[in-house]
Predict the structure.
Amino acid sequence: MNKKMRLLAVPALALSTVALAGSPAMAAHDGTYSSTLGQINGTTGSGTITLDVTGDQAKLNLQVSGLAETFMGGPYPHVQHIHGGALGECPPPAADDNGDGVINTTEGAPFYGGILTTLTTSGATTPAEGLNTALGGQGGSYTIDRTITIDDATQKALAAGTAVVVVHGLDPATLSAEAAAAPSDLDPALPLAATSPALCGTLVESQMGDMPAGGADTGVAQESTSNMGMIALGGGLVLAAAAGGTYVVRRRNADA
């Protein structure tokens, strides 16, 4: 069967509640910001992030493991960002307003805000690149280790303590039948699982080289069940899908 891949662009999501226009001026300062990423939506993935910031340059180290591994027969394209302009928190279970068992992108956005910086594997890191899956983490486990440029809005969010890292993409096998069959809240052509948050943590400035457990400060408990809007959008989303095909995401074997 010939499955021809195509790109689906998701329209920008207006998030008036997380607009940065009213944010007070605040100069960022150099330092190390880090977080242990907490689990959302039944994932068993894990992750840590460290940003060593000097001016507008940040040495990024992001390590992710245990997330959904494949999509349409290829590596699952997980995208991740520094969000900001909102509460600086990860959404709690009560954020699931429609009661389908999944905190979708629009439900989480009032807590962590819109995209400020895209944590890409290479190339640009602007919100415009935010949901370009070609620049996202591939598969269930990956590391991004590079120096990136962070803009003024990101620096202000870091200084204010409202910068939140979100990794996106769920395994539909971990969801209820209703949620697994549901379309994305961003684009009905995509499955809900593909556009919902999986890991989240607030970036906290480290003291004396310690790594704070930023995920613990967000109100999102680490989940202990086995195995895992696309983003709160300030820009567009790109996700690979098969024309006329079905969406299939397989779990990674525990022995892999």
In short: The chain has a mean pLDDT of 76.
